[in-house]
Each structure stands twice: as C-alpha cells, then as structure tokens.
Amino acid sequence: MHMNVAPHLLTEDRAEYERVLDDALRTAGTRPELDGLGTRLTSAQLRSMALNATALITAAAAAEYDHFVKVREQSRAPAAPGPPTAHDGPGPGVVAIVTVMVPVLAGSAAAIFLLVGAVLHAVAPTVVFGATLLTAGLVFGAIAAGGLLCAGAGLLVTALRNSPAAAHRDGPAPADDLSLAREAWRQALLERGILPFLAAALAATTPPDPAPSPDPSTP
Fold this sequence. Notes:
By secondary structure, the protein is mostly helical. The protein is built from 8 helices and no strands.
C-alpha cells in the first residue's frame, strides 16, 4: 500500500519511521493502551493505517525531527577553516620540518667539525684552526641535543592534546550529538505520535460480535 509521507519527512527517514512503528507493534503486549490488538484489529491492519497516516503522526514530533535534520546537516557539512589570528604561528608542517631538520643538520655539522678538528689536532697540535673546529663541533653538538629535547617536548604536547581526556573536555563529538538528536526524535515519535494513534484506532474499532451458538432444539 502506498505510504503518505509528511511534507517535512525526508525520504531517507521513511525507513526509520517504519522501524519505530514496527517496534511499537512488536512490543504491544507490554503496552496497556494497545490491549485491543488482535481482537479489534490485527498488527497488519494497524501498520497499514499508521503508514497511511504518516503526515498526522510525524507532526506530533515535528520539533524534534527538525532539530535532528539540522544536526545531521551540520555533521555532514565540511568544517570551515577559522580566520587567522594574531596568535597563530607558523603552520604545523613548517614547525615539524624545522623540528626535525635542526637536530639532523646540527648533528651532521658537529660530527664533521669534530672529525676534521680531531684529525688536524692530531697531525698539527700547534695549529689553532684544529682547536677552533673542535669548539665549533661541540657547539653544534649542543644545538643538536637541544633540538632533540624540543622535538621530544613537541611530541609530548601533541600526544596530550590528542588524548581521549582532552577530546572529552572539548565536548561531545558530532556523532554523539547526532545520535542524541535521532533518539530524541524517535522517542517523541513513539510517545506522542505512534502510540496515541494506535490506541485511538483500537478504541474507535468495534470488536466483532461473537458467533451465535447453535440452538440445540433445532434439528
């Protein structure tokens, strides 16, 4: 049977509406307001009636549905980059390159200066240039060590920033907001739309008359 869809109910949400309806019918035995199910109307009959009254039923949860759709659209939209501020420094890519290259270059220079200085000092101990190269090698070695410490500190800060605790402090993830909005719509749809409609349909239906018992005096 054709399903009348409310103007504000999107096509992608029809299946969700039917799932909430089917859940209500499947658990009708635990709902006192649906006691007439099976005697007045069958589950198939009630389901058909609810599908044809979708516009009426979903209107009862229109506010929750509009909020759910808005949150879903926001979660699907790509995040716009924020405007640059005065506190923004170099990009993370530049910082990473500098952090890696400084220890490497300084370490290489230190190794070269120390090696050449040691050779000159061994061959000609009186030559001042050899001692100068050794001093320069020690300086570059200190720079390389400092660069390694800065790189380690940067990795530690990044790990702490990306930790689950930090993510929790930033607030719920968009997926959590979407799940909460969907569940709020489903609950409102069930309690204010589907269940009252099913109960009213059962109450408005006259139970079938019992079949007359045969007259024993009739031959």
